[in-house]
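Many introductory courses stop at the sequence. We go one step further.
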Amino acid sequence: MGERKSPGHSITEEKSAVAPIEGVPSGIGAFVGFAEWGPIGESIKINTFEEAKAKLGNFLANAFLMYELFIWFKISKGGTVYVVRTAHYTDITDPDTLVAVKASEDLLNGVTPVVTINGKYHGVMGNKISAKATRTNKINTDIAEDLTTVATNIVLENVNGIIQGSVIFITDTTNDVLVRVTSIVSSQKRIYFDRLTVQGADIIKGVNSSAKSRDFQLEVYFENSLVETIDNLSMYPENVVEYVETKVDEESDWIEAIDLSAGLEPEEPTDDQTIELTGGDDGLDAVVDQDLVGSETGKTGLYAFDPVDEQLNISIPEVQSATIAQGIMNYCEARKYRYGIVDIPFDQTPDEAVEFVEDNALVSNYISTFYPHVKIADPLTGQNKLIPISGVALGQLANIHSQVGKGPWTAFAGVEDGRLRFINALESEWTNDETYRDVLYPKNINPVYFKKGYGFLLYGVRNLEVIGGEFPQIPERLTFLFAEQAIDDGTQWVEFQNNDISLEKRFTRSVKQFLRGLWADGGLRGATEEEAFEIVIDESFRGTKDFKAKIGLATHKATEFVYINFHKKVKETV
């Protein structure tokens, strides 16, 4: 803006020297389990339980994943989860050894298979899919001029429905040619084309001449109900937009198509043909714990979460075993921004729960556990259904973290923030007796119990941390994960800046602004900023290729033990 020549205000904007650091979501759930539909070995993002059912199918009687998602969304009151569906692999390091099978059947031209229709995903759910092929020939018009053997364009009576890439069969019943449209001049009703077959002689305009597309439609049915229609399918790869493999892959939520005519003259499926898919298999008969934990090499199981650049709170509810618990622990410790809740096996006494934790060396501030499991109303039967506690606890975590004034620094425990809704009963009533809570809590197992007047409560804040460790409480670890990821994401600009004092100041201002906000929100402990956090730049690396900083956080300690001493106040006498 130029210099003013008369009195008045001039308003301009200037880019801030402080690069803002935004907070990150801290309540996102992440589950590995069994489902009847959806991709296997791939993390998918889900925002509602309705979306979960659409992507993963219905409840499975012998699997917990859908039940855990159901209760997670009810308790959390909304949010985001990532889900990895898994099955058995003969070699967990090789995704190609998956034993699950997609339902399948061929569409025929006469007796010749021309297109294989598969269920979009592996599993027996695909056996409920059928498909009907109908020839449509959406383009059916007359030619408005003769077509010579050397022509590269022709005028038609109508160009409606023709697109670039359309494959059209032009004939006068004596001679014919197959062409792929390269461009259209609609005002002239003229198409330009490449020839796909040899034209023996001129095609003469007349009563026997025509220009027709060779296309068909697929109607897809699930349990005999129409679920989708895919129009204008072509068997010609030259028709890039409408080629059957490409278009079905892009548009269908239920099937995939494989062209069987490679190297042969393409032929459309016989008209009015219906097939039923068969042979789908969930691949769960020989499943083992390692199929859920997965492999870093194969990016299966837990390791399918690796591409997700968000803080994840992880559960594998399907199996309660040492292999699963150790797998979650090892994964969370090795990866950035991962936290896990592991499940103790069903039907354990408090002493057996302690033995499970101790015998299997479950010691880490990246995991916690709760005891016992809980019962909810089965959405299918209305009867009580026993489910693992991990998904319930993660739902409560997400709920509390989403509330105003609360966050990862807030313990999702106690009569205010640990009160569980939608729970009908506990697996056992051991923890309703303080004697047994006293067995569990010193071993860092968080009790779940029924407290009169309050209901079912999560009643502990402990990580499975080593005694005397840095992060004995869950909120401490989660606060650090929150701050670490936010600062990591928000300081990517530092790379390739000149390593001088101005960079140090800019970095400090940026991080300080974020931590000041975190402290003001109640996320850090201390009466002043200096007590709540510190930022120290190692100036000895100034002018080198390395930039090093240390950030200290004063995290909150949740109150665990309350001692109140009453005494009789005696009135003093004169």
